[in-house]
């Protein structure tokens, strides 16, 4: 009888140990599965908001899909600041779930910036209206505000300006203007 009780105790210990091993291996498998589901997508940075506190904000668009991205400098894994036109690679835990961004890295691709020359035709309130001087069918007119002007902010009617666009996805995105 004593041996039977000992066998039952040993059997129950072995059974509980095998159950623990199964549970641990399932957990390890789940962690591996999450890591292998990491997805990436390329974006072009279209807007940078420099914050005094140091946690800058970034917006970007993808050429691969209609998804846009918003993130702060906390998510940047590479060194240095990002600029408009930079290409980044974003890593997601699951791209179909909101707020699943893990981190972003700057790629070595050159910035996709295109320019167009314009002549200011009128100023209405805080809006400047300019017409393309290259007669581009893509960008016949440009409307911008003082916030869009980089450098010398004194622009008058008949002044020539350069509009800077980021070539990203289905359309070019205007992001700044400079006086020529």
Distance separating the two termini: 101 Å
The radius of gyration computed from the alpha-carbon positions, rounded to a whole number of angstroms, is 28 Å
Give the helices and strands as they follow along the chain. Answer: HEEEEEEEEEEE
The largest beta-sheet arranges its strands as 8-7-6-10-11-9
CATH fold annotation of the largest domain: OB fold (Dihydrolipoamide Acetyltransferase, E2P)
CATH class term of the largest domain: Mainly Beta
Structural domain count:
2
CATH architecture of the largest domain: Beta Barrel
Unreliable runs, pLDDT <50, ≥5 residues? 19-36
Question: How much strand content do the residues show?
Answer: 35-45%
Net shape = elongated
Helical fraction equals: 10-25%
In DSSP terms (H or I, runs of 4 or more residues), the helix count works out at 1
* Largest pleated sheet: 6 strands, mixed
Mean pLDDT: 77
Protein name: Lipoprotein
Keywords: Signal
Signal peptide: 1-21
Keywords:
Lipoprotein, 1 helix, 180 residues, six-stranded mixed β-sheet, OB fold (Dihydrolipoamide Acetyltransferase, E2P), alpha+beta, signal
Brief digest:
The protein has 180 residues and is α+β, with helices and mostly antiparallel strands.
Give a written overview of the molecule:
This protein has two domains: 39-106, OB fold (Dihydrolipoamide Acetyltransferase, E2P); 113-179, Nucleic acid-binding proteins (OB fold (Dihydrolipoamide Acetyltransferase, E2P)), CATH 2.40.50. It is built from one helix and eleven strands; from the N terminus they run αβββββββββββ. Strands 8-7-6-10-11-9 form a six-stranded mixed sheet, with no helix packed on it. A hairpin with an 8-residue loop joins strand 7 and strand 8. The N and C termini lie far apart (101 Å). The protein is elongated and about 105 Å long. The protein is 19% helix and 42% strand. Keywords: Signal. Residues 1-21 form the signal peptide. It comes from Peribacillus asahii. This is Lipoprotein.
């Amino acid at each position: 009888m004593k041996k039977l009780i000992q066998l039952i105790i040993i059997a129950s210990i072995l059974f509980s140990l095998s159950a623990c091993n199964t549970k641990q291996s399932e957990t390890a498998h789940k962690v591996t599965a999450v890591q292998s589901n990491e997805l990436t997508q390329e974006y072009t940075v279209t807007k940078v908001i420099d914050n005094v506190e140091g946690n800058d904000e970034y917006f970007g668009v993808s050429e691969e899909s209609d998804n846009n991205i918003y993130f702060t400098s906390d998510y940047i894994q590479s060194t240095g600041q990002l600029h408009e036109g930079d290409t980044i690679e974003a890593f997601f835990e699951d791209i179909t779930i909101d707020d699943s961004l893990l981190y972003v890295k700057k790629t070595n691709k050159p910035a996709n910036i295109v320019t167009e020359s314009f002549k200011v035709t009128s100023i209405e309130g805080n809006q400047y209206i300019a017409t393309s001087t290259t007669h581009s069918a893509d960008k016949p007119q440009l409307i911008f505000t003082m916030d869009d002007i980089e450098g010398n902010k004194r622009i008058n009617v008949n002044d020539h300006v350069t509009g800077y666009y980021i070539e990203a996805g289905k359309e070019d995105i205007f992001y700044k203007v400079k006086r020529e």
